Each structure stands twice: as C-alpha cells, then as structure tokens.
Model the fold of this input.
Amino acid sequence: MKMDKYNEFINEGKEDIDFHVSRLQALVDMALPLMDQINKRSDALKKYKRAHEAIRHLNIEWNEIFPPPKKKEKGGGFFGDLLDDILGPDKKTNKKTNKPPQPKRDSRFQIGYYYVYDPDKNVLPKGPYRKWKGYVVQLIGINRDRNKKILVGCDTGAFKYVSGTDYLVKVPNSGIVYDLEFYTRGNCLTGPIPKPKGITDNIGTEVGKAVRGILGF
Amino acid sequence: MEEKALKDKIDEFIDYVNALHPILDEIKHLKKEIDAETFEKIVRKLKKYERPT
Done:
C-alpha cells in the first residue's frame, strides 16, 4: 500500500533531501487518486452546503501550497504594484481617446493627483502616454497640515496611470494625509539619470519602500 | 435524488476531502524542505488539477 510506503519513509527517520523528496513523491501518489474522486463529484455536489464548505476549506489549503499567480502588468515593478494597490489594477487605454480610464471621485478617500511634465518640451504631454515611457516620475507627497511638499521618490513604471488629469488616490490605512503628485524629470533621489531604463527597478523598489513607510502600509 | 442516497454521496465526498487534508498538510511542510525546482517537478501531476473545483 502507498500509505505503508509513506510510513516506511517516516520510520527510517532520515533527514536528508532524498528522504524529503521520496516522502513528497509518496504523498503525491496518495493525493492523486483522491483528487480524481473529488473532482468527479465536486460539480454535482458543490451546491450542497456541506460539500461546498468542504471544497472551500480544501481550496484554502490548496492555495497555500500552490498560490495562484499574481496578475502583473507588463513592466510593473515594486512601485507599479504599489500604485495598483492604491488605484486598483490598470485597465486598457481607451482606443478612441488614447487615455487611460479615469477613476471615479470618492470623497471618502484622500484626494491626490499627478501629472507629467516633459523636461525637454516643458509642456504637458499629449497622445498615448506610453510615448512618455522612459522618463522618471517623481512622487511628491504634500502634507496638507503643513502645506509642504516632500520628495518621497520617483519611478518610471507609473506611466500607465499618467494622463495629465487629476486623479483620486485611495490610500488605505494611512494615518498621514498626503496628496500625491507625480511629474517627470531627469533627476531623481539618486542623482541625474540620463537613461532611466535599466535602473528603474532599483528606483521603484527604493521609492516603493519609502512611500510605504511614509503612508503607513 | 433520494435524501439518504444524497447524504451518503456527500458523506463519501467529504471522506475523500478529509483524507486529502493531512496529505496536503504534509506536502505543505515538505515544500519548505525541498528546493523549488524539485518540488515543482514532483507535484506537476498533482498541480494539473490547479485547484479543487
């Protein structure tokens, strides 16, 4: 029996990797026929409460072992993920207007805004925002109480959100009131950046840490 | 479906689920002991189920 095989491994008491591998193989061999049986029945029975609950608990354990892959936007870094947390997942650009979707205003949350600034042309960009990829976006935190701007970081991955329009920024679990303002420049916390490409991730990560620390999440 | 038969079917289903729990628990512990590549290789067949549905 497969269970005997498994117990045999347990009783041997080996702690080396081969032992773990063999145990895992035996466990998988045991799990497979059970999964077959469960899958055969689950569709017909999941509408019943007890079966539904059993499946739900199984899903929880299953997901701990095989976490579902995170949906990640192309080119998104640490800071991009942070913005996803704040603004919600990015959606496709409106093909007619070439603008990203506009979040709805909600007065329950703190209001922030950001815009892009082309350091070469000194004008707000027009057209598809991806055209501007490659510039560094600086993130400015504005403390409403002190009315003081603080540079908290910068990142290039934020461009998917840039439209030149005011945005609402939802900042969960934040004890500090900040507006968020983004704009592009050729300089960043780490100094002049002639070619942002290639160092974006580092910037984003550092900035993401800073922002998380400042905003408290 | 007759009530008794349905109850038996659900009981049987839950038995299978309950039998799987300790196995998954062990797999979860072993995941920490084995390198990711080896783990993936071994659990590939199991993973094809993606998740219980």
